[in-house]
Prior knowledge:
The complex is a heterodimer of chains A (376) and B (203). Chain A folds into two domains: 12-251, Rossmann fold, CATH 3.40.50.300; 257-375, Roll (CBS-domain). Chain A has 14 helices and 17 strands. Chain A has helices at 51-58, 81-86, 103-113, 118-131, 136-139, 149-160, 179-196, 207-213, 231-236, 241-247, 280-290, 309-314, 338-348, 367-375; strands at residues 12-22, 25-36, 40-44, 66-71, 74-75, 88-92, 167-171, 199-204, 216-221, 224-229, 266-267, 273-275, 294-298, 303-308, 331-333, 353-357, 360-365. A six-stranded mixed beta sheet of chain A has the order 6-7-8-3-9-10, with helices on both faces. In chain A, strands 2-1-4-5 form a four-stranded antiparallel beta sheet, with helices on one face. In chain A, a hairpin with a 2-residue loop joins strand 1 and strand 2 (25-36). Chain A is flat and about 65 Å long. Chain B is built from eight helices and no strands. By secondary structure, chain B is an all-alpha fold. Chain B is 84% helix and 0% strand. In chain B, helix 1 packs antiparallel against helix 2 (40-55), helix 2 (40-55) crosses helix 4 and helix 3 (58-69) crosses helix 4.
Amino acid sequence: MPSKRLFDRIDSIQLRGVTKKYDDRFAINDVSIDIEGGELVIFIGPSGSGKTTTLRMINRLIEPDSGTILINDQNVMELEPVALRRNIGYVIQSIGLFPHMTIAENIGLVAKLEGWNEKKIKDRVKYLLDFVSLPSEMFMDRYPHQLSGGQQQRVGLARALLMDPPLLLMDEPFGALDPILRKQLQEEFYQIREKLGKTIIFVTHDIEEAFKLGDRIAIMDDAKLVQIGTAEELIFHPVNEMVASIVDSGKKFKHLDTLKIKDLISPLECMYVHDGSLDIESAISSMIEKNIEIAVVSNGSGPLGIVKLIDLLRMEDKDSKIADHVVEIPSFSRNELLSSSLKIMQKNGHSMAFVMTDEKLSGFLFPNDAFSQVIG
Amino acid sequence: MVTLESILSHTADHLVLVVMTLIISICISMPLAFGSLYNKRFGYVVTKFANLAQAVPSFAVVALVVPLMGIGFYPAVVAILLRALLPIIKNTYIGLSTVDPSMLDYADGIGLNEWQILRYVRLPNAYPAIFAGIKFAFILINSIAILTAYIGSGGLGELIFQGLVAFNNEKILAGAIPAILIAIAFDIIFTRIERKLTPHYRK
């Protein structure tokens, strides 16, 4: 049975004095927030501060003791929960893919329950997989355990987009990923967010992620909303010590000119290094097994460049060597100044660079990450 | 001398007894296991009863049925049933209830109702456990069905008991070998069905 389309677009989401208690402890204490349509609002705070509870109240997974939650002026408590949830995309940290279903079945499940015909489901699933940079022919019939963590999280996003919901709830979607992979997915998410044009409510514990992705950031502590505002507002006008320590206002005085690359290096782990003579097929399986999205291609003496898993998956000729498909990226010595390196990278449009110590590869530099660390 | 006809007819009787008991025990156990999932109190009573029935030695169960129901085919079915319920109930319940909570949370969060969660998430995840329970139950059913020949159920047990009384090894084997073959054949068939139902999602 198709459920009702409750809203085609989000004009506003309002929380009015929302309170939830477990026994004597407040999970959320009198929280009021106005969210505009099209905004990406990030909830951040220590664990137990009520950020996830707030998120889960919007799709009624948790119901408030008092207060109201309005989406486009409709009280969510007056909407049928199943219909409400099918109108809202939901992504969680543990992803929650069903291991007994193929990727296509996982993504298309709700469409099937909504009574779509098979052709329509298949087309939609294909479109969504391609949208999240997973070639659909390769992934539709696989099972979740055959995918890397990053690929699974992409499937999680595709699944949330199935019914084209105008609102997405994302609960630490990148929280379980290793730092380099997380940056890569944040980067991709940042880019596709524009295309999505959706209202997004996003929970994280990572302030850099919040600065990078959020239009506004809501800081929660001890079941209360402490402050909500843009990154600049929080950095320059924190309402209290707690906000200041989360956004680490002290850092804003740190002068970019004095920073060297080694201050902001992301260290290299040897699992990223792959020999250039490897063929594409084996490189793909190695990367999936190691759960990495990018690999450093080496010729034995030094790095040639990088290859990305999503690019390798798209290659026609799986027998050719990865050395032939290397993307060159700049490399800098760890003692060079950050500002000049960033300028070079920005000019050439590079999103990452190698960092060398004594002619040997020792880590990566991600400009966006470096920048958010500096302003954060 | 054991004739082939006699072996075949005893095997047929035995098969009717075990297959019928298996079907009845699945039909009784499944609703009890599903009920236990949604009502803790009911589940508690069911598990207690099934554990108790399991604790009584097989031969005692067979004997205990006689004062209550007399002898014959149907009392034998009841005696076997009492022993076969527990493995199916317990395994089904465990299979349905030990599903990764994040999966259930997610299913809830994308708007699956209680029935759809059972149908699309809990049940497929429980298949391996349910099948293990059914296979084990069948082994119990098959062996107790030999004993129930004592209370007039017929079947392969009859040949074995006749053989034992008459010190006739041929008769004992004529009863025992088909019983073993039935156990093996059943295991193979059910493993096939299980493979059909559960895709190869785990290596």
